[in-house]
Please model this.
Amino acid sequence: MESQVKKLVIIGSGPAGLTAAIYAARGGLNPLVISGRAQGGQLMLTTDVDDFPGFEEGIQGPDLMIKMRKQAERFGVRFIDEDVASVNFKQKPLEIKTESQELKAESVIIATGAQASWLGIESETRLRGRGVSACAVCDGFFFKGKNVIVVGGGDTAMREAQHLSKIASKLYVVHRRDQFRAQKALVDLVLSKPNVEVIFNKTIEEILGDNMVNGVKLKDKVSGQISQMPIDAVFIAIGHKPSTEFLKGQVELDEKGYVKVTDEVFSSVPGVFVAGDVSDFKYRQAVTAAGAGTKATFEVEHYLEHLKSPTEN
Ligand code: NAP
Model:
């Protein structure tokens, strides 16, 4: 147990958490980051990041996160590489328990981000890791020269497709509507690949295979017809769910589990601030998350000053 009350504990180590940590350390708040066992957030599962300013040739997602962490460490930020087990925000100081430590803090920034969503069908769960994946960067290599599907029509699906088109022999992008919601530049890039084919207006009814994926049953959304096609792998890229299980009953969450905020970074509990995809279901960019981390830190500074001298302001 760390006996001393921390000024600031940051939960999460994606762009939001690490930017908050850099600003807070430079602002003299001596922050402690609980990074989670899967450190670095969603960018750890991304390849080329071409839209983060400052890298004219682009940068690999994991490299960007390593740089951010090293930058935070340069300013003396300390890390606990564990998940948060529980929090108690009903009293002050705020309490945070990790797997091995109990911490007390005057303020907290929640920056736990979001994780990939799944279709929710039985065969998807049964065959996960056996041809069903939500991470082309992690698992694409296993399907070199094979035929694969990416499910989804957003930016994530296009990024996955872009990566897999370089590995797979044939790639089908299966989307439930007849229009993509992804950025045009990404769609154009994917469609320019000779081995990519788009299947519109279809959903995955079932993923087939005993030990390994060997096909899918597709449902046509217009005609209702079911068809079957052989395939070696299915990559699900249909959006994200916020990582907020541990916050239930502690801060207000919306019906999808995102932390409810006012003025972008204030949670329902004084002293508990929020940054990044854990509350932002709209922009979800590394750069917007980083910006939110900065804003949250400024509000922490203001909050702590006010705690010291409550008669001011
Ligand atoms: P998203 O934009 O919400 O797209 C999810 C896609 O999956 C949609 O096309 C949706 O279909 C489809 N979908 C959702 N549930 C489905 C289901 N049960 N069955 C079949 N299809 C389903 O999510 P995202 O692609 O993960 O992107 C999230 C955010 O991150 C966006 O703001 C995006 O710009 C950002 N992002 C950016 C980059 C980048 O390189 N700049 C990369 C990744 C993500 P509908 O279209 O019919 O709703």
Notes: The helical segments are 15-26, 61-74, 122-126, 136-139, 155-165, 184-191, 286-308. The first helix runs from residue 15 to 26. The chain is about 25% helix and 25% strand.
